[in-house]
Write the structure tokens for this entry.
Amino acid sequence: MLNFNGTLVSKDTNFLLSENRGFKYGDALFETIRVVNNKIYFWEDHYLRLMASMRILRMQIPMSFTMEYLEEQLLDTIAVNSLQNNAVRVRLTVYRNEGGLYCPETNEVSFVIEVKPLDVNFFTLNNDEYEVELFKDFYVNADMLSTLKTNNKIINVVGSIFAKENKYANCLLLNQQKMVVEALNGNLFLVVGKTIKTPPKSDGCLNGILRKKLIEIISKLEEYTLEETSISPFELQKADELFITNAIVGIQPITKYRKKEYTSVVASDLIGKLNAAARLG
């Protein structure tokens, strides 16, 4: 079962029209959210990011779209799928309603909520082999639109195919200035000694929820120095660690890039602090 505009319907219900703007133009936003035992991880951050993104895209925010209302819709969808006592991956998609060509006839929106069970309740560190490579066929634009979680993810799709064809676990994306921006499915952090770097949003990286949370956590730790700064591809092989973050996996260490192999000491230190923040937030 899924949730369409507050109505719980079967997954095989045909409720999306051929004129759907998310399908035709990518005129849609989405949030991918981890929920464990009916606790929504970092819900306020997800909600505020969605509202800010809707304003940037000039979508009309319904009066009903309060944090409490959408939380209720998420939990109702989890309940109807009997996943209240599970770890769950939730996708909340908001799209502009049908009508118009590039210029829409309305700025009103609809939403869809989908849920899938996850294997583990808390963020765990996977230290299996995880090799990455640069994806250089296409580039991320260094602008505000690139920071939004929209349905325009064709570079991530093509990059994922490239990774699969070449037996990489993931790829790192570049912007037009040839700076490393992020991974295909999350934000990137680089560790040199006790300095932790991550690309700034001005370089075009996704405004990730886990990125935000880790920045908050690291900034309070005396043993580390955090820098939001552009990262050159040449820095990758000089790093001690590289890891990727997203709202479902948490922290994913990179074990190899080209001839360089990496440790995961800092990632191991941060994963427990991230779980503690998730339980509190």
